[in-house]
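Q: My labmate handed me this sequence with no annotations at all. I'd like to see what the chain might look like in three dimensions before we decide whether it's worth expressing. Could you predict it?
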Amino acid sequence: MSPSLTFALLLLLAALLLFWQAGRQRRAAGIPGGRVIYSDTATWEESPEPLFDPVTKITGKPDYLVRKGRAIIPVEVKRTRPPEAPYDSHIYQLAAYCLLVEREYGVRPPYGLIHYGSRTFAVDYTPALENALLDLLSEMRRAELQTSVNRSHDQAGRCRGCGYLGLCEQRL
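A: Here is what I predict for the chain of 172 residues:
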């Protein structure tokens, strides 16, 4: 076998190995097939501008946006241990990203993905979820106007990590 043919075969083998490794890493990160059009992981490139909706006044930076055909799918990667079902707070965060994608790109995502370590959950972006998100945002806006808001949990760990710990009269 000629040296140039051997070299070409080695290059081909290396390319296949790199392609396989990239697919493996993509699946491990919870990124579906498709073209990544937005990434808030500083490992690839400079962090993009956050998405913003002037109607609801929310802003956010999904970990990934993946274009699959005409659809744009938001992907949120969590570093916590995989739960049995996604946490409500994570579902609402993903719903907010879906709303931001629809407002920014003019395309309503059919679903979004939440990836926890070894487990990925697809969350349908239904009108009911959108309405629940909008209701929650309204409730939050009303709470912002109040002079005193009661603690909404009974978890001492959340209090320990809170930025208002020193000011809160309801800390655990």
